[in-house]
Amino acid sequence: MVFCDSHKIIIKNRVMLKLIKQEINCVFERDPAAQNVFEVITTYPGFHAMLFYRLAHKCWEMKFKWLGRFISYFGRWITGIEIHPGAIIGRRFFIDHGMGVVIGETAVIGDDCTLYHGVTLGGTSWNKGKRHPTLMNNVVVGAGAKVLGPIEIGENARIGSNSVVVKPVPAGVTVIGIPGRIVDSKRSQTIKDRETIASKMGFDAYGATVDTPDPVAHAINHMLDHIHLMDKRLDGLKKVLNEAGIDYKEDSIPTLDDCEIKE
Fold it and tell me: How far apart are CA 88 and CA 53, in angstroms?
């Protein structure tokens, strides 16, 4: 019996050691500034926060909830990152810089997700039950973004810096703005190829790329294009009416030449 218990402890320790190695390796994959393992272990608050969280979450699962909360509180004091011990976080989770990150009790985070400083995974209700977001695998949330409520963020989604997201986000899209809007789910093949290459390089900083436009300006510019096209058609109709001998009188309207919202 003692041998069996010791064997279980050894297996658990090996699993925990493997998880810690994965946490360290994911830092090198997503932060070009990381120099060596010793630097990561001693100076990366995101790595420290995950160590505190793993211990606090284990206490929470074992019903030692006050102890879990105290470990979480101590971890926040040391790192500036607040992770509730009741949250569920997958493997290879990386918090870059970290200061001001808040992850609520019922939040669920999948594997290979990345959060930057100032991110909040918060609730919008005081009721018990699921009230925090669910992030599927490989989600990136940019600095200062707020993801609020029991919503789901699909796999490979990107939340731009300082966005406020209160509605579910489909897989594979980029969301920016307040409130968060999908930039363009029908991106060109060129942009998709660029994102694929960036993903292979392991760098997608702050959930944003140089190809990310302002969604409001993007929509207004499309409306202006449509209005210009309608003006051309009306000019053509007037020309046909005049050629048919029909006198068409109109009031002058302001021109839309050079009217454009800069992205």
Answer: 10
